[in-house]
Amino acid sequence: MTPMPPAPERARLNLTTLGKLCVLVTLMFGFGFAMIPIYKKICEITGINFLTREESGNAEIARNTQVDTSRTITVEFDANRQGAWQFKPERRSIDVHPGELVTVEYELINGQAREMSGQAIPSYAPAVSAEHFRKLECFCFRQQTLGPNENRRFPVVFMVDPRLPANVSTITLSYTFFEVGTGMQPQTRLPVTGREI
Length: 197
Fold this sequence. Notes:
The protein is an alpha+beta fold. It is built from 2 helices and 9 strands.
């Protein structure tokens, strides 16, 4: 057993330890704040979590693109939701020519007696079509807030880039609408039926 240092030495050691702990807490707090911009930068560099960004060049591409009437692409629309929304496209599919500017609408209904905010996340099939599907206007670019029992229609203005590979004749645009923000109600889990794999 080692003897205790004298009281003045102990006080100095305690102050040194307290100083080190304060520096450590300050660094941890600063690192917590720095994580948000670091995460955003990593996502921007790698392309992760930037599914709904508005691309500034799409309007210019749409203005300077010729419509290819020799080719027809079927665009199918799908809508999924997470939460207490009703969400559906105005039509299930449309035939378009590459380079043609097209507008379709999705209907979103808040069936709750409270205000709700949500965000739509798009996905594309086949995956190669994502880089050739140019959205000029989309409700997915920002969060949407609907009042209690409000019903709203949102346009999606897009064109299919003529450089879409020739073997792609059908594109499926699927949106999943999630509730975001405060006031979210917990979801109840439905029992899973069927056989397990």
